[in-house]
Specification:
Number of domains: 2
Radius of gyration: 23 Å
Structural class: alpha/beta
CATH architecture of the largest domain: 3-Layer(aba) Sandwich
Strand order of the largest sheet: 2-1-11-10-12-13-14-15-16
CATH superfamily of the largest domain: ANL, N-terminal domain
């Protein structure tokens, strides 16, 4: 027997129609490259999305074609987020922080037909344009009058939209139609593409609004600092459209003072970004006076947040730090700390112990941990295993990947590469990436735990821990430390500071001081660079 339900497709088009019908007066705010503030409503946005859809038709963009966006977080990028997929094409959000050869690879691999590019990023694209084999048109966003470029077949965004009507008959799309394409940051080999469906993005938007997700509502003003080229800005532009939430976008202005000023001036209630952004923001808020009384929550993802920074933000400013975990391959939602479930006893049930973990799986995501033989391990807070996930928001393969689906199990789970424990109530605590674990004398050492402990020292700004070869123990940990300005910590005082927290064999064999920790394109510590520098003797 089957339920008799209406055939309603879960598409981004449904979100677009909803924001027009129900939230036409809700505001989208952008700080432009020139530093001015642009304000308009969802109703204005909808009309311009219609113009964009006609313009894409005129450029010959068809169902399934990939359209690239090389852009900051702006209202025009929001328009592209809706206009491209709602005509049946695929939004390829190009990661502007990739190396030039990886930019070339991803654009050619995606076979982008049109690329939209912010005027401030045109020089980046001009350098690689001769190597791009499929792009027929480049559309420059935010170009001042008379702006010239060497990009072939270049058009200006506003000129493209101007003659088009502000209404459009949207096609009826199947919810499994491809909507978005995001590439991994390529930490090993070429980046791989995660192709999202309309259904996955609709579900991601719903999960973002749930109480055990982000717990946001139409009463909020959301500041999306997480880049729109990084896993679709964690789905925030779609969640905001679905729920009628006011959006604030920083454009290219990502310095701590810029972020603090926007949070103050726009009365932001929730901001989303990676830990490196919040490290800088915390120092700015401590050093200068801002009215951030409206800000109730910081969403942290992309990398582990040092517990010392979480404690400082919550205690000093009465702001809740919400830790989330996910991956590009998961659309990207995975787990979220939210509110600790009743009766949680893992790690003695303390508040700060809960905050060190990554939270419980969100709706639509199943999680399991397995041992080296693939056997499922218990959720007892003790067993440590590799994290595998599945669900309607998790990809089943990489886009056009000739290397084969080596990250997918035969029974349909995605192998994340993270290693974690699971508590009985479902709280996940990531101990490390599998490739970053250190095996010393047959025992595992977590580089993440050591890093968090070191960064709690008042003289330390950043710390990364890598494994180094050891004749006796096979591997030993090495700490690479960035001191705070004006501070000169010693190896001895750092080891003394962290030694109460760890067994003696965990303590780093060496501590070296460096000027900065290299980062990946999405702000994570790039340990492969550190390992390479060590091997070359250049640390």
């Amino acid at each position: 027997m089957q339920g008799q339900m209406m055939d309603f497709q879960l598409t981004i088009t449904a979100i677009l129609k909803r924001l027009k019908q129900m939230y036409s007066q809700v505001e989208i705010v952008t700080k432009t490259p020139a530093g001015t503030m642009h304000r308009y409503t969802y109703g204005d946005c909808y009309r311009r999305v219609c113009k964009l859809a006609h313009a894409l038709d005129r450029l010959g963009v068809k169902l399934g074609d990939r359209v690239g966006t090389l852009a900051w977080n702006t209202y025009q990028h929001v328009e592209l987020y809706y206009g491209i997929p709602c005509i049946g094409a695929v939004t390829h959000t190009i990661n502007l922080r990739l190396a030039p050869d990886q930019l070339i690879y991803t654009i050619n691999h995606a076979a982008d037909k049109v690329v939209f590019v912010d005027v401030t990023l045109v020089p980046l694209l001009e350098k690689i344009a001769p190597h791009l084999t499929t792009v027929e048109h480049y559309v420059v966003i935010g170009a001042p009058p008379g702006c010239q470029t060497t990009l072939p077949n270049a058009l200006h965004y506003e000129d493209l939209l101007a003659p088009e009507p502000d209404h459009y008959n949207w096609p009826e799309l199947d919810e499994n139609t491809a909507a978005g394409l995001c590439y991994t940051s390529g930490t090993t080999g070429n980046p791989k593409g995660a192709l999202y469906s309309h259904r996955s993005q609709y579900l991601q938007a719903m999960v973002g609004g749930m109480s055990n997700g982000l717990g946001i509502s139409s009463k909020d003003t959301i500041f999306a600092v997480v880049p729109m080229f990084h896993a679709n800005a964690w789905g925030i532009p779609y969640t905001c459209g679905m729920m009628g939430i006011r959006q604030v976008h920083p454009g290219p202005h990502l310095k701590p003072a810029d972020l603090a000023q926007l949070i103050q001036d726009e009365k932001v209630t929730m901001a989303a970004g990676v830990p490196t952004l919040w490290m800088g923001l915390y120092q700015e808020l401590k050093s200068k006076s801002y009215d951030i009384s409206a800000l109730r929550m910081l969403l942290v993802g992309g990398a582990a947040m040092p517990i010392s920074l979480t404690q400082a933000i919550e205690k000093d400013f009465n702001i809740t730090v919400l830790h989330a975990w996910g991956m590009t391959e998961m659309s990207p939602a995975g787990t979220c700390t939210g509110v600790a479930p009743p009766g949680e006893t893992c790690e003695e049930g303390s508040y700060w112990a809960w905050k060190t973990r990554q939270g419980v799986p969100v709706a639509c995501v199943e999680v399991r941990i397995v041992d080296d033989e693939g056997n499922e391990l218990p959720w007892d807070g003790q067993a440590v295993g590799e994290v595998q996930v599945r669900g309607p928001m998790v990809i089943s393969s990489y886009y056009n990947d000739p290397s084969g689906d080596t990250q997918f199990t035969k029974d349909g789970w995605f192998i994340t590469g993270d290693v974690a424990t699971m508590c009985p109530k479902g709280s996940m605590g990531i101990t490390d990436r599998s490739k970053d674990l250190i095996k010393s004398g047959g025992e595992w050492i977590s580089s993440v735990a050591l890093e968090s402990a070191l960064m709690a020292h008042p003289k330390v700004a950043e710390a990364a821990v890598i494994s180094i070869p050891d004749q006796k123990w096979s591997e030993r940990p090495m700490a690479l430390v960035v001191a705070r300005p004006g501070e000169t910590p010693s190896k001895e005082e750092l080891l003394e500071f962290i030694s109460p927290q760890f067994a003696k064999f965990w303590l780093p064999e060496e501590v070296r001081f460096i000027s900065e920790v290299p980062k990946t394109s999405v702000g994570k510590f790039d340990k492969k660079v550190l390992r390479k520098r060590y091997a070359e003797g250049s640390l």
